[in-house]
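Supplementary notes for students who missed Thursday's class. We covered one full example, reproduced here. Read the sequence, then the structure, then the short commentary at the end.
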Amino acid sequence: MDTQTAVKDIPSGMEVTLGRVVLRVVALSPGIVRFRYAPDSTFGPDESFAVLKDSGFSTPEVKVIDKGPKSWLKRASLASW
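Structure (token representation):
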């Protein structure tokens, strides 16, 4: 398996690059985290969920913690994971 080559902060989440593979982790709400995987560094169309005008979700603040070969996303309500 490739080793982590980059971690990038993005709004409400992070992207982790492993060679050409990209994993995107985004907190959609305090209790919902979305993972997307791009095996060739390119994400396909965003067809995994419907976007509502008033979904009731508020985007939570998150903190990306990058410790060399390990990285994680921390949100107060998800901290017990």
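Commentary. The chain has one domain: 6-40+57-78. Residues 6-40+57-78 form one domain. If anything here is unclear, bring it to office hours.
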